[in-house]
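Weekly structure sync, notes
Attendees: PL (lead), two postdocs, one rotation student
Agenda item 3: pending single-chain targets
PL asked that the sequence for the first pending target be pasted directly into the notes so everyone works from the same version. It is reproduced below exactly as submitted, 369 residues in total.
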Amino acid sequence: MKRFGPYLIIIFLMCVELLSAQRREPLDITVDFEAYDPPSTLVVPEHPTVRAKFPFVDVHSHHWGLAEKNLDELIAEMDELNMQVVVNLSGRGGERLKLMMDNIHKYGHADRIINFTNINIQSINDPDWTESTVQQLEYDHSIGARGLKIYKSQGMTNKDSDGNRVKINDPRIAPVWEKCGELGIPVLIHSADPKSFWAPHDSLNERWLELKLRPGRKRDADNPASWETIIAEQHEIFRKHSNTTFINAHMGWYPNDLGKLSQLLDDIPNMYVEIGAVIAELGRQPRMAKKFLTKYQDRVMFGKDSYRPEEYPTYFRVLETDDEYFPYYKRYHAFWKMYGLDLSNEVLEKLYYKNALKVIPGLDASMWK
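Predicted structure, written out during the meeting:
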């Protein structure tokens, strides 16, 4: 019996543990990936920044209701952020643009609210499309339009009357680009979307969560064309129309490959970029992003895209502070944490307003003196 003693004790203890486990509540450790978002326990200095260090120009904003809106309310919101000028890219053109301009003048804010116009590419098969579009551009400029905005749908999903995708480098549009150069107004152009939207929607796709929650953003490899094809069409018009200034929206969808973007900026001197909707990409690579923005400080502008005042402080914090490990405001868009770039005043001033003063006509430089 003695030689079995140790084994009997072990068996007894195992039985006690088994009975105890049966009395305890089972642990629920099942958590969906979408729900897993624990608050960080990291304790580091924080510098929430609700107001930009310098008065800035937002070169990428959308305000469809400018013809009816109480613009004093918009200006009050801008003042809270230290936004000196907002560029509305949704001017529409023609009579709609005229109504917007009339309301802006009525409220006395023509120095604070700038409009870009838009054109209709879907009717490109009309025999007089090129001539009438150039005429519309001239009229819009005469009533106050200070640039042309090209949406991603123009060159990606827009189709002509025959059902064919309208390529943004269609030769029939070339006189429009040339007219912008002649008038001295920039073209802010959005082509394609993040490259990951064309990749398989699987565990290797960094945008998996976004594509699950926003399935309409997913594209097949050739729908409506490959990402590389659409981007190449955009770059072709930049190179062909060197007398026209182009502002490449969303850093040309190369904010995650600043080496490639550097090559493009070196190769295409009439191309500028803006940072709308890609601040999370810059914030996760603070050293590389700071080097890039310092080197190309004369070619990058501040842009936000959707106008939501509560989201601007994240941009200010990334650009101005040296804070560590803080979140983006849309987890599905960027589930990673970000870091401040702590940009110099020289770089910040160019990013916030000096480059816009150089590129967009009609801005009153005296507002920064």
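Discussion points:
- DSSP finds twelve helices and ten strands in the chain.
- Strands lie at 56-61, 83-88, 113-115, 148-150, 187-189, 246-248, 271-274, 300-301, 326-327, 337-338.
Action: rotation student to compare against the earlier draft before next sync.
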